[in-house]
Amino acid sequence: LLGRGASGYVRRARLCDKLLAVKRIAISDDERRRQTFNEISTLVGCTDLSAANLITCYGVRCIEGNIEIAMEYMDLGSLGDLLRRHGPLPEEALGSLLDQTLAALHHLHKEKHAVHRDLKPQNLLLSSSGKCKLSDFGCVAELQDSFGKCGTFVGTVPYMSPERIHGGEYSYASDIWSLGLTIVEAALGHFPYARCNGYWGILQAVLHESSPTLPADRFSPEIVDLAAQCLQKAAVDRPTARELQAHPFLER
C-alpha cells in the first residue's frame, strides 16, 4: 500500500516488467462515478502527458462501485510526503519543482482546456531522477474553450481559491492560487493558514484575511514576488502559467 486518503487508496502493482501505481477511488453516486470515469478516460493513452509533466495514465476501470486508475509509478511519493519527512525545500529545489509544475499547468490549461481543481503538495509526485509530475485527475474539469468557466465545488477545501469558496464561477486562475499556497507551504515546511480552527476557520481566513506571504528576511525577493503574484485575491490579477514560466525566480 502506497497511501490512503478519505476517498480511497493507492497500491503498487506490476505489469510485466513495469511498476505501476493503482489508485482506487470510492464514489457512491452513480452519475458522479460515470462522469469521473469519462473525464479520466480522456487522458488514458495520451502520449503528450509525460512530456508535459503530467502523470501518465495507462488505464481506468469501474469495479465494485469504485474507479481504479493505473498510473505511472513515482518512487519518492508526493511533495507532501517529502515535506513531512524532511521539512521545507531549499529555493533551488523548489525552483526545479515549480518549473515542471508550471509546464504541467500550461499544458493542462492551454492544450487540454482543463482546470485541475485539486492542486496541492499531495498531488505533485516525485521521482529519484528529479522528475515532478502533476497527478490525480479525478477532479479535472474540461472547459469548452480557453475562456470557459466552471461552477462546481470539488477539490480539497484548504487549497481552494477565494472565488471558488464564494461559490461563483472560476477558471484556470483558481489553479494558480492553489499553486501559490503550495509554493508557500513547500518553502516554509507547513501549510500557511492555521489549521486549529478547522475548515471553517481556513475558509474565513482565505476570504477575509491578507494572503499568506513569504518573509522577506528569509527568502529571495524573486520567490517572495512569485508567491505573492499567485496569491492575488482577485482571479483576474493572477498571472497565467505561461507568464509565470518567465518569472525572474525561474530564470536565475
TrEMBL record:
<feature type="domain" description="Protein kinase">
    <location>
        <begin position="1"/>
        <end position="250"/>
    </location>
</feature>
<keyword id="KW-0808">Transferase</keyword>
<keyword id="KW-0418">Kinase</keyword>
<protein>
    <recommendedName>
        <fullName>mitogen-activated protein kinase kinase</fullName>
        <ecNumber>2.7.12.2</ecNumber>
    </recommendedName>
</protein>
<dbReference type="InterPro" id="IPR011009">
    <property type="entry name" value="Kinase-like_dom_sf"/>
</dbReference>
<dbReference type="InterPro" id="IPR017441">
    <property type="entry name" value="Protein_kinase_ATP_BS"/>
</dbReference>
<dbReference type="GO" id="GO:0004708">
    <property type="term" value="F:MAP kinase kinase activity"/>
</dbReference>
<dbReference type="GO" id="GO:0004674">
    <property type="term" value="F:protein serine/threonine kinase activity"/>
</dbReference>
<dbReference type="GO" id="GO:0005524">
    <property type="term" value="F:ATP binding"/>
</dbReference>
<dbReference type="InterPro" id="IPR000719">
    <property type="entry name" value="Prot_kinase_dom"/>
</dbReference>
<keyword id="KW-0547">Nucleotide-binding</keyword>
<comment type="similarity">
    <text>Belongs to the protein kinase superfamily. STE Ser/Thr protein kinase family. MAP kinase kinase subfamily.</text>
</comment>
<keyword id="KW-0723">Serine/threonine-protein kinase</keyword>
<feature type="binding site">
    <location>
        <position position="23"/>
    </location>
    <ligand>
        <name>ATP</name>
    </ligand>
</feature>
<keyword id="KW-0067">ATP-binding</keyword>
<dbReference type="Pfam" id="PF00069">
    <property type="entry name" value="Pkinase"/>
</dbReference>
